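Thread: adenosine monophosphate complex, take 2
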Amino acid sequence: MSLVLYNDLTRKKEKFIPVREGCVSFYSCGPTVYDYFHIGNARPFIVFDVLRRYLEDVGYKVTFVQNFTDIDDKMINRANGEGITVSELAERFIAEYYQDADALGIHRATVAPRATEHMSEIIGIIRNIVEKGHAYEVKTPSGDGDVYFDVRSYAPYGKLSQQSIDELEAGARVEVGEIKRDPLDFALWKAGKPGEPSWESPWGKGRPGWHIECSAMSSKYLGETIDIHSGGVDLVFPHHENEIAQSEAVTGKPFVNYWLHNGFLLIDKEKMSKSLGNFMTARAAREKYPPLAIRLFMLSAHYRSPINFTSEGLEQAAGGVTRLRNCWSDLLYARGSRVGEGDASAFVKELEELDARFYEAMDDDFNTAAAVGVLFEIVKRVNTWLKKDSLPIAFFEAAESELRKLDGILGVVGIQKSADSGADEIEGLIQERDTARKNRDFARSDKIRDDLLARGILLEDTPQGTKWKRKL
Ligand code: AMP
Ligand code: ZN
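Output below.
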């Protein structure tokens, strides 16, 4: 078995060989936390969650870093519009991010760094870039300085998006207020403006540009050369191109060995995006469809292909999830009522073959579409066997451990979730909530209810006490 990944840097599939044997350093560009995320954004969060789980399943120790962009123009505009500070806005939408991401079964990152908490690292790397002659300061009328990366000083610029500097020059634009030597250059540091948060720096008061935070935080948590860096395909240029230039200009070493980008989630043939207004938030989507169905929908296509978001597609996925869950509950039910004599070796053999096909699919550039197909074949075989009157214990053991393992990677059956959220723990939390309510600590009692809801557990207060059930 060996994993092959399509590397956007070389435009071909390559055998995956990590820098440090047995370990994977993985950086995934995270959300700008100015609003709820939409289901287009959910695509990279889900597909790269699955790649991470797969790497863990096959035995790697994965350090997964996903940042929060908590300072930029969108953050500032929204905070001003709402009359709150940028950090209050960030706090709010980071909490909202976790509500949705947890409900979608996205495992939490090993480290989830925020740009505003890494100002000294960001300023440090910018100083280094300036010292090496790849960036320059321009004083603004206020006396504070902007710092720009000098793109022409870094010859390999354009290698990820495979464009020449001259081609790029033709398309480059200068934003209002930017005073740079060349339209290609991009801001590493922006001089502070009244009404905006700013930090002290060698160039006066200001704030970082967007691209630099990922270079700074990636090297802080993962080192100079990392194994995998991922994001949506819209990040190839300019975001990732700029990250490469910034990082490699400082270290002289390759920044990332494998660049992975997911295709767009489309709606009516257009990219789903906030700016086009054609989006559905993950929050709204999971009120309409089971979160497991949203995952299954995303994983039913190859991560690099575009996918069309349609209600039929989501409903079909919801039907698929029902089939998966029914199989799992029938299995548990039958184990309690129909264990008997018999020979399960034929089933175990079938399962081994299907298991091998699952890993083959995942090893081939984590082809989740094919892997999901294998999962449904397994379910079909299990269902066929479940028609028998008496079933050997070996059948149950093999079927359950296989489904549990594959669900640990794909997270579409919801087995892990029900195991994690054991009934005892839920009852305990309900008691804690009752006590909090008696003490009129409603902040605590509401938080317990919301946290449970985020995990798909609904509470219902009845005259007989609080009841709970699992949302699909
Ligand atoms: P943003 O908060 O806009 O930086 O986006 C977070 C992540 O979502 C990035 O990896 C984007 O590339 C990705 N993304 C944004 N829109 C879409 C879309 N319609 N389909 C797939 N990925 C997207
Ligand atoms: Zn990034």
